[in-house]
Amino acid sequence: MYNFNIMVFPMYLLSIIFSLSSSSWILIWMGMEMNLISFIFIMLNHPIYMMKMESSMKYFLIQSLGSLIFLLTINNSMIYYNEKFFIFAMVPPMALMLKSGMAPLHSWTPMIVNKFSMKNVFLFFTLQKLVPFFILFSSWNYMISYISNINIIIGTIGGMTQSSLIKMMIFSSINNTGWMMMSMMNSFSLFLLYFMNYFILSFFMMKFIFKLQIKWIIQINVLSMKIKWFYFMTVMSLSGFPPFMGFTPKWLIMKNLYAHYTLNILLGIIFSIISLFFYIKSSLIMLTSYSSMKKINKIKLLSTNIFMLINLTGPFMFYIFN
């Protein structure tokens, strides 16, 4: 098992670097296929083999479809490269959106990603999106504002109706995808700040779900008050609520893009407020409720304290980057 991880994970990282550093469409496609195969191997490296076999097969079929569409249409789209809204020029970016689970081609993600292990969910939320992000921005940047708006709207509306914690995180990832796309409209450094911020928050959230084996949001009611505050701070930070660390990147996006992309920023603010209302309402009910059941506390006290301290660095980040 250990030797398997040593071989596959470096190949996985190299496939991402290979795709991002390639200048030819064929090489980019080859890098994405290397990335797909290595990610499938990582998925299969799990004790619950049959469940992961099913989800990995479905994931492979979706990714193969996206890769096939991308490969078959990329040559035609280059012929009509200056025709921004010509049908052949629109298909390759939609294939990339399908592969990365962006809205509106996201309908497969809740059903399939919900069966991933927490490590694979974390990789899908973060590193798996890097290559489509940069290809979309470098070659179809006129579509970025539309894609970001759709992801923010669908991520907010979809997340509000979920009682499953993993599915809520999937729609939160779609929402944060829209904000990351908006950050790329300003600068690479702002995107890097937002991505690293989301990387850290997703890591702690996936660790929280994995350690406690939580599937439904209502299960958090039987946990200790410290774990409830841990969940509350994480969700608020993912939603961009001040003074947590997730607020600073969103504030910088709003500050830098408001003059040129006013409608995008207003939509982002409106739907962020809607999602915050739902998350605060559910979290306050959770924090004020009392359960007579035995409190469960499986996460080490040290790790929760460290994350709470990291999450409260929002004011310092605001002072440094603002």
Describe this structure in words.
InterPro entries: Complex_I_Subunit_2, NADH_UbQ_OxRdtase_chain2, ND/Mrp_TM. Its EC number is 7.1.1.2. Keywords: Electron transport, Membrane, Mitochondrion, Mitochondrion inner membrane, NAD, Respiratory chain, Translocase, Transmembrane, Transmembrane helix, Transport, Ubiquinone. By secondary structure, the protein is mostly helical. The chain has one domain. Helices cover 75% and strands 0% of the residues. It is built from 15 helices and no strands. Helix 8 packs antiparallel against helix 9, helix 9 packs antiparallel against helix 10 and helix 10 packs antiparallel against helix 12. The longest helix has 31 residues.
Give me some keywords for this one.
about 325 residues, mainly alpha, about 75% helix, globular
Task: Give me the secondary-structure topology.
Elements: H1 2-21, H2 25-44, H3 49-79, H4 87-100, H5 109-113, H6 118-125, H7 130-139, H8 144-160, H9 165-184, H10 188-212, H11 225-239, H12 247-257, H13 262-288, H14 301-311, H15 314-321
Helix pairs in contact: 1-2, 2-3, 3-4, 6-10, 8-9, 8-13, 9-10, 10-11, 10-12, 11-13, 11-14
State the helix count: 15
Beta-strand share of residues? under 5%
Oligomeric state of the chains?
single chain
Rg result: 20 Å
Let me know the largest β-sheet: none
Structural domain count = 1
Give the helices and strands as they follow along the chain.
HHHHHHHHHHHHHHH
**Shape call:** globular
